[in-house]
Amino acid sequence: MAERSGPPSGRSTAGKPLALTYPHPPARPDQPPDFSALKIPPAGVLPVPPLDLRAEDAGDFATGLIRVLDDDGQAVGPWADAVPGDAALMQGLRDMMVMRAVDARLLTAQRQGKMSFYIQCTGEEAIGCAFQRQLLPGDMNFPTYRQQSLLIAADYPLDLLMGQTYANALDPIRGRQLPVLHSARDYGFFSASGNLGTQFVQAVGWAMAAALTGTGGIAAAWIGDGATASNDFHSGMLTASVYQPPVVLNVINNQWAISTYTGMASGAGRTYAARALGYGIPALRVDGNDYLAVAAVSDWAVRRARAGLGPAFVEWFTYRAAAHSTSDNPAAYRPKDEAKAWPLGDPIARLKGHLIARGLWSEDRHRQAEAQVLDEVMQVQKRVEAEGTLLSPRAFPPTELFEGVYAEMPPHLMRQRAEIGE
Ligand SMILES: Cc1ncc(C[n+]2csc(CCOP(=O)(O)OP(=O)(O)O)c2C)c(N)n1
Ligand SMILES: [Mg+2]
Questions:
Q1: How far apart, in whole angstroms, are the C-alpha atoms of residue 238 and residue 3?
Q2: Residues 80 and 100 both lie in one domain
Q3: Domain of 82?
Q4: Ligand 1 centroid vs 207 CA: distance in angstroms?
Q5: The domain spanning residue 335 has which CATH number?
């Protein structure tokens, strides 16, 4: 028998040192932003696939980029015909403006010490706002901490949305979750999970149950690019691929997972959408800063799920323009002006530009609307803050701690409640 001999330790058979690959972001804080390596195809080049698109025919959609708005703000290409009407676009602009104003006000409130923590979705407003407007009552989102835009477009009352972040008497879940981990079943917003990746298994399971029990409704799973590195992502994908439930599997690729560059989760220069093809799930990759493209593709994916044609995967290509959270300082790991250099621009500015180009809007009307939206949001915030902030806290009765978690209170909690004299 031939004697087996391996290469000397640490060297390849070609005699070269074995080395690992560590993906690096294109630029660090002391360098100018550099997105030159991104391949951004022109708007309007991809067709609209049939609703029963199969993974093996989805290659171009998973590696390209569906874009409707071109650089002049015109809607171009086949997907332009799938965009909702003018009233829906005006509504979309307002939704995004409200979202941005709410984020700005709550960020300031956190900096003033009125709440403990906040997470903004700046730059990603189009994705949740446009997707939600394609859903129906009875559908269910499984969101992360960065999908408050779904609630805005579901017309969730702003005093509840803000109250949750102050954890005051207006908080429907009475301080049981971190600020921004909302829970609003009647608005199609499943209790947000802080554990990355769980949304994929939960949404797939919910969609299977909806199909099995005939209760109807479709599910939408939401995770970030970094969370695709979790086991739950793969479990959800495999289960969706086997049972074909009515679910839309969304990955928001905003280039960062706190301070970790997206390349650490994508690996080897592949798109996230391309990963779904290996599971036999058709996937589309979309410019997430283009409200028209987001609305058209969301409508396509939602109709596919509703038609019983199985799961679809969407990679929303965008940029996290703000810090990860109020506990993060992005100046430590990326160039200061990187958000401004993002080649796909800002979703509000782009929709505004489109509506102006079509004579439906103007800079003046936009300025007025911005002031009006800010005023409305500040009025609500004032009312909400009157119910208590960290600077002027109003304690809940301690017995509340024991309610609303278990249908039947377990004995150890009964004992604890007795200890505080109730
Ligand atoms: C299972 C798990 N691991 C780690 C964390 C800590 N953590 C919170 S947010 C985050 C980054 C997530 O990045 P991404 O999925 O890209 O979403 P984004 O914040 O960019 O929206 C990490 C590592 C967590 N919450 N859950
Ligand atoms: Mg991310």
A1: 42
A2: yes
A3: 55-391
A4: 24
A5: 3.40.50.970
